[in-house]
Each structure stands twice: as C-alpha cells, then as structure tokens.
What does this fold into?
Amino acid sequence: MGLGSYFRLFHAGWVLAREGAFSVLPAESLPPSMKLGIGLARVVERPSVRKTGRVDRLNAALNKLGPSFVKFGQTLATRPDIVGPQAAADLSGLQDRMPPFDPALVPGILATALGPKAELLTEISEPVAAASIAQVHKAKLRQPGALPKTVAIKMLRPGVSERFHSDTKALYAGAHLAEMFAPSSRRLKPTEVVRTLDHSMRIELDLRLEAAAISELAENIKNDTGFIIPDVQWDQVAQNVLTTTWVDGIPIRDLTAIDAAGIDRKALASKLLQSFLRHAIRDGFFHADMHPGNLFADPKTGDVIAVDFGIMGRISKRERKFLADILFGFITRDYHLVAQRHFDIGYVPKHQSVDDFTLAIRSIGEPLHGRTAADISMAKVLGQLFVITELFDMQTRPELVLLQKSMVLVEGVARNLDPDLDIWTVAEPVVGDWLRREEGPVGRIEEFAGHFSRMSEALGRVPVLIAEAELTLAEHRAMMAKNQPNRFVNSALIAVLAAAFVVLVLAGWRLLTGNF
It folds into this structure.
C-alpha cells in the first residue's frame, strides 16, 4: 500500500466527519473508547449538521468517495431504529437513485460487450434505477421466431472497477493502521474482514458471475413459494452487461403504495425474513445485498421480488448449523446452547468461561423475548454487544461477515414493513423444521452418506499409494543390488507403507463414524 492509499483514507475520514456521518451513530450506547472517537470526529462537523441533525449532503459525499462507502450508507439507511428516521430517509437515495451515467454511452457499451446480439435489444429506456456499481434500463428483446420480451438490462458504470480498487486500497490501509496502533482491534481481524469484502466486490464486478448466481438460486428455490427472481437471458450476458426478464413490482419501501394495493405488510415481512433464513440455513447460499432498492412486492400475489444478485453469500454446513442453533437457542431461551455454539465455532476463545458467557447472552436475550420490533432498541442492543465482544475477547469470523451484514439488512427491511414483527415467532418454522430434519432419520442418512463418500474417496487412494510404494521399493532394491543391501532401510520402507495404510483406514473409519 502506497502513501496514496493512506491519503485517500484520511480524506474519506475528513469528508465523512464533515458531512455528519458519525452523528448518526448511537454514541450513547457505545463503549467509552468509541464514544471518544466519535466525539473527536464530530469536532469538524458542519454547523448545519450540528444544528439540525440533517445529513442531507452525506449522500453526495458517499457517492464521491466510491462504491464501497455507498454500500456502508445503504446499510445505515435500512436501520432507522439505530441512526434515526431522518438520517435513514436522507440516506435512502443511495439505494437506487444515484446520478446515472450518460445514456449516450449505452449503445456503444452494448455493442462492445455483446457484438451482433446487441441489435436484438431494442426500445432501450432511460435509466430506471442507478446505484453505485451499475444502472438498469428497460428494453425489448426481439429474438427471431419468438414474441418480443420485456427485459431489464444491467450495465456496470464505466470506470467503476478503478474506483472500487481505490476504495479497497484505502480500506486495507485503514485495517493496517488499526492493527498497528490499536492492538485490541486485532481480535476483530480487520484485514481479513476487508479481504472478504474485497472478494465479494470483485465478484460483483463480473456480471457473468451474477447471472450464474441467479441460475443457482433459481434451482434452490424452484419448489418454494413467496420469493420471486427474474430469469437470465444468457445470450445477452457479458462481463459488464446482464440481461434478465423484467419483473413488475412495488418498491418495498413504498408503504403507501403497498397498502393501496391491498398487500398484507405483515405477511410480506414474514415472507422476506423466512425466505432469507431458508436460503441461508437450508441452502447455504443467499442474497447478501437485500437493501430496499433491490426488493419489491408483487401486487398480484403479495410475494417478495428480489433483483441485483451481484453480492451473494455462501456458508458451509457447519456455519448453517451454527446459525440455526443460535436462532433456535434465542427462540427457546436456551442461552447455554447459544453460548456453547459461540465457543464451538471459535467466536469466543476456549480460555473464557462458557457459564459466564451464557449469563452475558441471557442479558441480551431476555429483554428481547416476547417483544415486537417496535419495542426493541437495536441501538442499545448493539452497544451491549460491543461491550460483550470486548469483555470476552471475541474473535471475528470473516466467512460470516456477509451473513451478519445481510441479517442486519433483512431485519431492518422487515421491521419497516411490520413494526410489530416478532422475529422469533416468524423464524421458528424455518429454523425448527430444518433442525428437526437434520436431527431426524433423513438428516442422519444424508450425514452418513457424506461420511461414507469421503471414506470411499480416502480408501480409493490406497491402491495408488501402494503402487507408488511398491515402485519406490523396487527402485530401492535395484539400487541396493548394485551396492550392498541395507536391511534396515528395507524394513523402514515397509514400515512406512504399513503405517500409511493404517492411517488411511483409520481416517476412513473416523469419517464413517463422524468422530472428527
């Protein structure tokens, strides 16, 4: 990282402080060290922000700083319960109402990306949505021998890749400084977190990968109800162009229009939350950018419509089990289960006390139990979580960063739809059904089949190892025939061969029995 990255970082910090970014954070709920940092940052705040609390210029500032900073603002916009309703409203324009790039560039972009197939796209509209990475146009796809089809064309902004890489270098510089000058931050693994976000953003800059993500998600949800996604038009896909079927819906943040259409907002919130949990826990593959700009309500069915699959999250079976157990523990008030799973997955170091951590989890869970979203102050909950993570030296799991960010987004959108949302009641059918299935006969059979498959693979390598060992032994004997034999070396080779065979068999048995 060069000096330019550090300069960009300090410049970003100055702009954010000047435009009131730190004023929207719930300082009263944070630990003393964070309160001090926010207080110092607010010294340079514009007088109008200090007087009115409005951060109306923050949108433009974040957009100028780059796409990574816009993503941060999009997340804050979904949490009026944390940053306040006025700040959330001011930031909501970051979701799909950014200034578009010049429409005159569109024909050239399509021709370069798609070649002759670009000519099949006609009646291209002005931008219907513009965000930090890309913008969307409505068009007609006229394929030979088929009726015209209404489609959505998503195009990356020219130069967005360079802007993103500048953002990333600045974020790496910030992580490096944090680890160097704030040793306590190392448990949060800032560099690894930035690396995780860097990877997800690199994927977002290739729309062919987004098309593949839509395809995979469609396979996963083909038998589900309540959640709709568009279809990919593969012949009109390139690295910087993605074409899908057009889906009509009411923006999920437009509560007035949703009510006017007679859509049950409570049911819509439940469908959103349950669909997300189903994708994450059942499939391990989920939409990781579910801010309101990417979500709509189907006026005919009341279902959730999702678009923009550039950022997707993927978690393993182990992390899925962790998430399900954590949610189920809160639902059933089994705080020891919640605490133990944090130790099992490595969030809390082994030297800490499970019983003490259980008590800390109870202090969070009990005030939430039986309460609706309107009764819960997430600002206070987050402040308490900050204190607990520091008290128990909790470690960050970078592979779960996207999941945690997505849960914040989804819960915020669902809360906006239904202020009386009882998160635990809505989550129980999905979480409980999955856990009952995993612990039941079907889950055990699938687990056994997985162990058996891995054991078969391990045992299948044994003949190859034996053949290689025999060849080595033959070469050794030939060499010894020319020189004087060494019985000790021969015996050692045979012992190594036997030991390798035993190790493989034992590994296979452990896989079969699940004793890892």
User: Anything to note?
Assistant: Confidence is low (pLDDT under 50) at residues 440-446, 448-452, 511-516. The CA atoms of residues 156 and 264 lie 35 Å apart. The radius of gyration is 27 Å. The first strand starts at residue 121 and ends at 122.
